[in-house]
Design brief:
This protein is α/β, with parallel strands linked by helices and 502 residues long. The chain is 32% helix and 26% strand. The chain has 15 helices and 27 strands. The strands form 7 sheets. Strands 12-25-26-27-23-24-13 form a 7-stranded mixed β-sheet. Strands 21-18-19-20-14-17-22 form a 7-stranded mixed β-sheet. A 4-stranded antiparallel β-sheet has the order 4-5-6-7. Helix 3 packs across helix 12, helix 8 crosses helix 9 and helix 12 packs across helix 13. The longest helix is centred in the first third of the chain and has 17 residues. It is elongated and about 100 Å long. The two termini are 36 Å apart. The chain binds one RNA strand of 76 nucleotides through helix 6, strand 5, strand 6, helix 8 and helix 9.
Amino acid sequence: MSQSDRKSRLEELAPELLAELTETTHERSRELPALEGAENGVVMRFAPNPSGPLHLGHARASILNDYYVRRYGGRYVLRIEDTDPRRVDPEAYGMVQEDIAWLGLGITDVVYQSDRLDIYYDLCRKLIELGGAYVCVCESERFRELKLKGKACPCREQTVEENLELWQQMLDGEFYEGDVTVRVKTDLTHPDPAMRDYSAMRIVSEPLHPRVDATVFPLMNFSVAVDDHLLGITHVIRGKDHIANTRRQRYIFDYFGWKPPVYRHYGRMGISGVVLSTSGMREGIESGLYTGWDDIHLGTLRAIARRGIEADAVRNAMVDIGIGETDISFSWENLYAKNKELVDPKANRYFFVPDPVEVTVEGAPRHEAHAALHPNDPARGVRTLATAGRILLPRADIEGRSMVRLKDLYNIRIAQDGDVLRVTYAGDSLDEARREKAPIIQWLPAETKLPCTLLRQDGSLEGFCEPLVAGEADNVVQFERIGFARIDSVDGGRVSAYFAHR
RNA sequence: GCUGCUAUAGUGUAGGGGCCAAUCAUGUCGGCCUUUCACGCCGACGACUGGGGUUCAAAUCCCCAUAGCAGCACCA
């Protein structure tokens, strides 16, 4: 039985259930797979590196973790991973907080790794005492060669006492950057070369860390393992680029006898059409190619917010994508659909006339048009546009046409007389316009209009919009027949809008 | 090169031996509705990477191939 058959059968048998049928098939948010051992609540984390504002990649990680914290209850730790002074932008601390607020993440705790250096030092010493780490003074290149052959470097044979002494010298500033590193003792014959004796601590003397006076810093595998344990993290959802790190961190959990969290690694998400790399964005901003971190060509959250995409649309899109291990390509189309769902019921409708042609409609009566602010919500009222015949029309929509209907106004005939356009009044009849298959287009009175620029990723559109748009700053509106746009600014009577999507 | 992960319509997803000639969303196309090419409604289109096996039965389990991705940093 086909779906429509079923539906009509149901209508015969139990019409009262029909509403339920259509209801349940419509709005139902997706349920992601259950997390093992999460029944009594979870402690999860979002751990960005403060090198710039958050982008769509961060959005996936943070929203997926947020989703499970909401689902199971518990705590959500924001852990700022600022252990590499080279990759810390002091301004990013604030930007990350702003972006998190925008996303609406349910963060319950905030920790900065740069506040916890003493903890890492202490546990590093303990790890050395346990024989789980040694201080390596080999050149990194030399170590790499040995490692690939599965061979130990001489430092590996040092006694615990020797290692502790070297470690103390490291802390005392007796080494220079690059001369020494603390390695976790794993297995030099491990089939995966990525597992062999990785680094846990190193010296960074340049640049200075913006928050803390130190030169010895942990590498992420060490600080992450330590913090995941100390903060009581129960579940970790992150990208599969961390699979090897998860295995490396397991060594530290094992040395200390800690129980590791449950991990889930989702696949790589390719995002096209925007710039995502922090360095690429920074260079572009410095060279003037981009206007700032919220330039619409960037994949930052502030950039897509500027384009009128709502945080919940991003959230819905990310939950929809889920935690699958397959590599995927992020779909702007799907994001826009989620956003339209949110924005369409809210957005007021206005006319925007790009690339305008000003004409006089011969024989036109004085007329006042009333157009609904929202066609599905008459209670919102109307915009009133009065004209005596001088109007603005979108060039592309009248080219090659002999008759069009001006929406909520009247019909016009267009004749091309050499270079001159002759536009004449052609009555008020909507039926006639329909009969002649005249398109219904937007227009503006020549006397009442606001200059407006519609900025899009692939270039901007100049034109005019209704005066009422001035009151929509920061809102998303729908320019009829063009699409949704966020009114970014209204300066000195000039409107600047960012195109969101159709 | 070594190690590992993955493979369902254009995109995202469900499905983990029979209920699958495969779900839902998005998209595209057509229709209805409509003073927007919006919204809503109806319909159509469109996929189990390939090859072997196991089994009465495979999208689902196993092997191989192929492809994509990740890691092999004193980055996170």
